[in-house]
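3.2 Worked example (two chains)
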Amino acid sequence: MSDFFAYYVNTSNSPFWSFALHDGNRINPELTDYLKLNDAERFREEDPYTGTIAELPINKFIVSTSRFQLDINRTIADAIYLRPEQAWGLSVWATLPENHITALQHEHQNVFKEIETLIQRTIDDHGYFVVLDIHSYNCKRSGPDEEVDHESNPQINLGTIYNHPKWKPLIQRFMTSVQNQAYLSQPIDIRENVKFKGGYLSKFINGKFGAKGCVLSIEFRKDFMDEWTGEPYIERIMAYRQVLMNALTDLQEYNFDDTRG
């Protein structure tokens, strides 16, 4: 934990992790004078309530600092939104002093050193790891009354592009587990690598530990909330958390012995 980037880690005796990198909306007070966006403008592109979905009985890594301050699901070169093309066309900062940029980049490096340590410790303790990398995405870009294009916007997009091929059976087991469930009495549309394929967290972890574990980057379409007003639909949020709870039960029965070594 640092004053410049806030997150919390809760460890348990489990090989499984839930991450919510974009749940937060906090901005360090030292930086607010340079910020050009208000809370509502930032909130729309953040992933509110993913921290609630990620509150599972496993290891947790939940970020409370806004991605608009530092986005650790991007490379260090793109983690600070200095240009509109990095931030959905939004102009995020007035001229940000170089010392603050340097401090934020240092935080990026420190966070990934800690993540590396945590994943290595999980491997040491259990022999493998599985990360649920939880996000959400907007599907009504043109306005609140836009009709959702369900064909191009799956209810759950599973990003897996950086995973070692050995984990394809595990990935399929997760997808099948979700497909076999109901969400508010309706079938669940989960598809792989349609909207998003996985971000820097997945690339980093797989680059170092891909033979020992798998990162499932789970993007929920933002129909568990009003993506324009920010109003949460609590029943839907809790239903998604239950979907992941059930899928975890299935993954815990997976034969990891065949994948070690």
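3.2.1 Second chain
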Amino acid sequence: MSTPFESEILAANAKYASTYTHSGLECPPKKRAVLITCMDCRLDPKSALGFELGEVTTIRNAGASGLDAARSVLLTTHVLGAQEILLIKHTRCGLLGVPEEAVRGMMKKNLGVEESKEASTREEVEHLRKHPLWLSKIKVTGWIQDTDTGVLKKIVE
């Protein structure tokens, strides 16, 4: 027996599938790019950055962690030919209602994530660039998207 949410998803999928026009789409990203962004449900990288299905590989995880995404990024660069990586963090953590100090303390203690978005963006870009399997021709940059305005700002060139 389906839950109401599952029924909603199945109805939406049936509508999507009835107009689906991407049969035969190849796996390598057409724009040869990878986005690493947060799993926060307020973020919509496709709409915010203007790409279409098949143009970029998108890796989403808690905090837009370059450390967590490294394996997938390496596969996408080595196997699928991606040439550019954008690590995109955002303002206002989605753990709304949880005191910010508690989130920061827990993230730092459990995951080693810095309190500052800019600092952690810089650290994670450097982590990717210094990875022993990193291809020197791959460009990686760091960004922060403002959750309230949608504006994207480059932090690491």
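3.3 Remarks
The longest strand covers residues 84-90.
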